[in-house]
Write a structure and sequence with these properties.
alpha+beta, 9 helices
Length: about 350
Amino acid sequence: MAELLDHLIIFGISLGIIIVFSGLVFLAHIGLTRLFADKPDRQHYRQLILIATGLFALTLAFILIPVSDTTQGQLLGFLGIFLGAAIAFSSANPIANIISGISLRASRELAIGDYIESADYRGRIVQMDLLGVVIAAGEQGTANIPNVYLAANPVSRNSAMDARVQTGVSVGYDWPRGQIEEILLQAAKDANVDEAVVEIGSLEDFTVVYRVCGRVADIDQLTKCQLALRAAVLDGLQNAGITIGVYAPAAVPQSSGMDVKARQAELDNVAANKEQKANELEKLKNEYTGMSQRLIEVEHELREAGPGEKRKPLNLEKKKLEAKLLRTEKEIAKAEAMLEAA
């Protein structure tokens, strides 16, 4: 009877210790939530602190339980095995999201208020944490993008402090540069674009590529302003009688059928060239996505490999992948610029 009573006392004390530490972790959760309530750009700190607090409290509770040293060692060993098994048998996506989230925050590539475009997602960042990024996607409401998705796909970013829009147009050489620049600047003014400037993007065989760009005061109006700028540029050129394309109207001769056939052949060639560039761009994006996913797998294998010779080929593959990703990213940007100018 006395032995049973002793066991009940030990069980009661152990249960009380676990309840007390669980309460402390819960209070820490409430306090951290209130502390970081108005700091959406630092939610990852709250999550990391809470995870560390929970693990520390659980370990300390096991140490304080009134049992023998051998039993305490077994409990701590069981805790380590349990955590390892939870990581090993859980889905790889949460772990990959956490690693990608830490990488994104450490590199400071994205910040609250930035306007981003990535494949099917487009909107302003309103919250960031260890698992994903929440964006305000206009009329579609909000969208939660996993961090691993952002790490595996190219991201176009407009800073909240420097939101910019631009659009390009290809015009024949017969039209005066001053007239085109005046039309583009007026279009930027009509679209409420600040600090607008016009630049000559490139000099092609038959056309000149002009670009008008400027700053948007309110990043929430970025998409609306971009669409308004394109519409204003189109209206301005059409009102002035300027045709966008290979030739200006004055440069199209109305003579023989051979000239018409030659011009049609040139137009067909331009269309085929544009389609080829689009296919090459799609291929580059697919290669970038595949290499990004492989890089995540290699990093996961490195974490599991531990010290030793096994890490050398993985480290070499990681460096090669990072170099290829950088080159492919530059090729994608170049291909997008060429496609836009085509």
